[in-house]
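The pair is listed for reference:
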Amino acid sequence: MRDMAVHRTGRPPLTERRKAATRLEIAREAVALFTDRGVAATSADEIAAAAGISVRTLWRYFPNKESSVLPLLTGGIEATARALRSWPAGSGMAALLDDLVSQGQETITDLPALLNLVRLTRTEAGLRAVWLQSHHDAEPVFATALAQRAGLPDDDPTVRIQAAMINSALRAAVEHYAFRTDTANQEELTASVRMAMATVARGLPD
């Protein structure tokens, strides 16, 4: 999870791209097995076999079988961080939302798996912990992006609160959609995200 906080420019080296592709394939297979059988009934050996790797390789990438789903979560979080970094100062929430939607297109192929994973977090405590931890780790990344936009230090309470609001809104929007439907409709999920971010922009009622 620590590598989320590192902001690199340019295309990653080939070895890093291959590792990322392997990690993502493991995550896809893990979610498919967890969805079909449940976490307790799925072994690390089965996840490794489905991904075409050895169990030893699986443990090099992840400390436990629950954490193997993390690459499906970090993609959306990293896309949000990129959108926040490129959000022009002085532009409104609409500009950020448009960039969030654009950045999200990169992960659209994994949307069904992501939503299945989020649904599993209702009943699988281990997956819920990974889901919440991924958002916990994302918050300082969002705060840094907002601080750079505003010309403030990373630990400024304003940007930390703003980052927490955006982080919580996005998590709530995805859960709101995932928990209420068995489909994976990009437009409907986008509408849920737009609603959540518009709520953040309005703030609390008087």
About this structure: The CA atoms of residues 101 and 190 lie 7 Å apart.
